Amino acid sequence: MPCYKSGNYSRVLNRRRRERQNRVNTIIKARNRNGVQASNWEPWTPASEAQQMAIDSLAKFTGYGGMPGAGKSSLLLMLSNYYPTVQIFRKTSTNLDGLIRDSHNMLDGSGAQFNRTKHIWRDVPGEYGKGILQFCHLQYDHSAEIYQGNPAEAKCYDEATQLNRQPFSYTAKWTRSSIIGQYSRNFLTFNPPTTQKGMWVIDFFAPWIHPNYEQKTGRESAKSGEIRWFIIDTDKNGQELDIEVDWSQIDLFLRLPGEKRGRKREYIDISVEEYRKHKLSELDLGDRHDLVHQYYSDNNVDTKKLDLVPRSRKVLLEVDGTIRRSPDQSKGLEPLSRTFIQGLLQDNPYYAGTDYEAVLDSLPEPMRSMYKNAQFRVDLNISSDFQVIPTAWVQLAMDRWREFNDADIEVVGIGV
Q1: Residue range of the domain that includes 60
Q2: pLDDT tens per residue across span 5-61
Q3: Bond preceding residue 68 cis, omega within 30 of 0
Q4: Total number of domains constituting the chain
């Protein structure tokens, strides 16, 4: 390896950076010159029914995937057509390379401008005018603090099983919008987890993908695209607990924001039965229909793009774990909706006719069965090569402790 003095070495690094950047600029200019021009540019559209379901869903948290090649990353990129600000998170900045490359294929020629330093597309054409598409990474748990107070209408977590739950929960707190009538959502795309780090997504979307859900809860498993409601609590160790709220305790309503002139907020009750049977656009608002559309029309909101998304009134979580409706809406927890939509390789017309399924056939078990059959398992107990205590032993010890967690037992010693 050549040896340079500090001053010369700095100049060499700067020259190499300039050369590398010039090569990147040449590639991008060639792509723009040979690619689609702005005059006939067209946005990407869903390639499968599953992708369309994910975009149309009204759930606050939407999971999508189950099988490699189902179009998970392209789904997240397409959300920039529907939301003013979209943030896509991956584990590391290197993981973002493929997404950024695909975003150029999607947006080159559209008039959008890409900042290569900050990994942000600006002036992205969409339903709400010119929007923002930002690429972010959560390499460490404390990396989430970088995005504190950085809101977006759509926060997306690609390959969510590579992330810990803590940075996901931390960044998802700023999923919000100041635009009247704009709904904000979180999207998680993933395949079946093959390490203990990603097992939290199975609990997060348990009604859809947990193999023992019916046995553990006595409830029927949810279908793909079905909406369920949850509140989040914490145990004595500070770990988040996902608590499902039964439909009998859900009380849905629409709330119209009050006008600046002092107009009172309007609350419109929504039938749970009708909500579960129909899409929201088909709901009968009765004599309030004209009121809803007139209100948003007065506030210069295009009612064709209006997101009328019901919310649930607050519930109370009792000490014994039961849930009941809160008589006082100033107290309690407001349930948030979730859904999971299964995406298969066969749904993706771009990969379905290739040999990608043969590539999955070459994987070793149990990964082959998990990926080909979208099979989520909780019995893997995979240990790291450098792990001293096997994961199976740790899991058994944790299960034993849960049985006595509430018992009044005096600690007389700790073995390390």
Answers
A1: 39-250+336-343
A2: 445 556 656 666 666 666 555 555 554 544 444 457 888 888 888 999 999 888 999
A3: no
A4: 3
